[in-house]
């Protein structure tokens, strides 16, 4: 669990760029490093390293959402905190786009630390998108 918030996506928002799995104590602190690409695998087989093309795409997505808003969405989706989503962050999410949002989410979920609760995280990501797009 040490790499909890430092997934191979600087994308969750992971939204992240690579996805974000640092440690549980840093789970609510999101930055490009947290939502950054894990350039080193979290497992011995190396299956969880994100391809360069995808990492570039995810970095661009995360630049659009920003550190503060990325942290809010990451915490809501992957930690389960029902935090208030400021209107400005909803606008950034919508500007970032649905494809970026779900690609970041999927990349985080692809990490071993998140796979077991994939359905829960997907549902929360959909809920966050729907809340902002109302």
Characterise the protein shown here.
- There is one protein chain.
- Helices cover 49% and strands 0% of the residues.
- By secondary structure, it is mainly α.
- α4 runs antiparallel to α5 (118-133).
Q: Quick recap of the structure?
A:
The chain has 134 residues and is mainly α. 49% of the residues lie in helices and 0% in strands. α3 (87-96) crosses α5 and α4 packs antiparallel against α5 (118-133).
SS content category: mainly alpha
Helix and strand pattern: HHHHH
pLDDT < 50 runs, ≥5 residues: 1-42
Helix content: 40-55%
* Strand coverage percent: under 5%
How many strands? Answer: 0
Largest sheet: none
Protein topology:
Layout: H1 52-65, H2 67-79, H3 87-96, H4 98-109, H5 118-133
Give a quick set of tags describing it:
134 residues; mainly alpha; 5 helices; globular
